[in-house]
Amino acid sequence: MIIPENLKPADGRFGCGPSKVRPVAVAALADVATTFLGTSHRQATVKNEVARLRRGLAQLFSLPEGYEVVIGNGGTTAFWEVATFGLIRDRAQFASFGEFGSKFVSSVKAAPFLGEPSVRKADPGSAPTLVAEAGIDAYCIPQNETSTGVAVPIRRVEGADEGALLLVDATSAAGGLAVDITETDVYYFAPQKCFGSDGGLWIAVMSPAAIARAFEIKESGRYIPAFLDLVTAIEQSRLEQTYNTPALATIFLAAEQTDWMLANGGLEWCAKRTAESAGVLYDWALNSPVAAPYVVEESLRSNVVATIDFDDSVDATAIAKALRANGIVDTEPYRKLGRNQLRIALFPSVEPADVEALTKCIDFVLAGL
């Protein structure tokens, strides 16, 4: 099946991670290739880029006094282990409503030095709430569940024990959804989604209370593997560097994306842009005779990751294959969810006009099938 060129989006990348990297950012990286790539990460050339990224993120999230941007290697998966060793004192409560939230739960359950976590679950496509519970010193929740396209509001847990932290997995939300950072203690993410970069890096916006907790646990004598030592990451970030060698291109692309976001109006602009794209896609699905948003409750539908179900009369796999054959890629659903659906990234780099074009392409494919 050949989709007419006049129907196609200008850029056919709709993947949820790695996500679309803006060509202008790649060109900017190429411009500094001989002076930046392949140079020491302990020297000013690279440290200046780390500083640019940290400053940009501080501005993007309007950081209050005392909050810090901390950077380390390994991505969000590594940060779950970092938090397990260096942020949870004894017992954590989790909101688990998809593949990625459940993985953090598994890390904590496996840690012999931590108490049994409290887990509040909901079926995929919906979300639980965190509830105050005596003895819980860390509450953990994804802002956006990348596997299902569910997004939840972020607020502190009313009635929680004094000093309890709120850890927010913002991997696919940060930079695309609004957030009040003062409602969080650790807002952590990786840059291969809204920040239009590659993976392999974790970034955590940390409150003074979270930083103090990291030092407290380190000083308690708990064994912490060097690679997962949060205090080391904090101290190295203050020096505008990472504990060990980072992927330089990843840092540069994330800094470029952050500057682009700020130049266009910051987080407010980013959130409006993703909301516009989401409006186009969800309206199309609601008006389609064979499609519907997977997330039934409108308030939980994500503006950065949209999941669209199809009737049994339609094979969503065939739609995704036809799109891919025409250069419109990565619309397949999350593999473990097992739904007859498409999953489409609506990150800030994705043009709303391209989302509109995508819906026309899907209609064309449906007509052909």
Pick out its properties.
globular, 37% helix, 10 helices, 12 strands, 7-stranded mixed β-sheet, alpha/beta, 369 residues, 14% strand, 3-stranded antiparallel β-sheet
Give the helix/strand layout.
Elements (H helix, E strand, L loop, with lengths): L22 H9 L12 H17 L7 E6 L1 H12 L5 E5 L2 H12 L7 E4 L16 E5 L1 E2 L4 E2 L13 E5 L16 E4 L11 E6 L1 H12 L10 H9 L9 H17 L1 H21 L4 E3 L11 E6 L5 H10 L15 E5 L6 H17 L1
Parallel strand pairs: 2-3, 2-4, 4-7, 7-8
Antiparallel strand pairs: 1-9, 5-6, 8-9, 10-11, 11-12
Protein name: phosphoserine transaminase
EC number: 2.6.1.52
InterPro entries: Aminotrans_V_dom, Pser_aminoTfrase, Pser_aminoTfrase_mycobac, PyrdxlP-dep_Trfase, PyrdxlP-dep_Trfase_major, PyrdxlP-dep_Trfase_small
How would you describe the overall organization of this protein?
- By secondary structure, the chain is of the alpha/beta class.
- The chain contains 10 helices and 12 strands.
- The chain has helices at 23-31, 44-60, 75-86, 99-110, 208-219, 230-238, 248-264, 266-286, 316-325, 352-368, and strands at 68-73, 92-96, 118-121, 138-142, 144-145, 150-151, 165-169, 186-189, 201-206, 291-293, 305-310, 341-345.
- The strands form 3 sheets. Strands 1-9-8-7-4-2-3 form a 7-stranded mixed beta sheet, with helices on both faces. A 3-stranded antiparallel beta sheet has the order 10-11-12.
- The longest helix has 21 residues, at 266-286.
- The radius of gyration is 21 Å and the shape is globular.
- 49% of the residues are buried.
- The mean pLDDT is 97.
